[in-house]
Amino acid sequence: MTTENIYDKEFEYDFKDYVKIDLTFSSDTELYWIERTSGADANEKIKTIHLNEHTTLTGWIEHDKTIVSLYSDFATGKTYVYQYFGNGTIRELIGTIKPKSKE
């Protein structure tokens, strides 16, 4: 899948035992996510950089001031996220991406 085809499609981001998130890119400046276990969700104002035809780097600041940097490789199905918390800690997560199947 190329990054031109990601808009208005739902993707499953699976970070193993930590969290599973369904994420929809509305555009390069907005996305919607919902966390599968808790049901927490948010619309985020984002900045997306298209690194090439298969990869993006997306960043945003969550309501609690956590800074999120999300690397998505739609060709390989791999994703990396870095969360920067206000107390100075950083969390790195490695996971997978796949288009969400219609249930």
TrEMBL record:
Sequence ranges assigned to domain MoaF-like in this UniProt record: 9-98
Protein's name in the database: MoaF-like domain-containing protein
Source species of the chain: Maribacter aquimaris
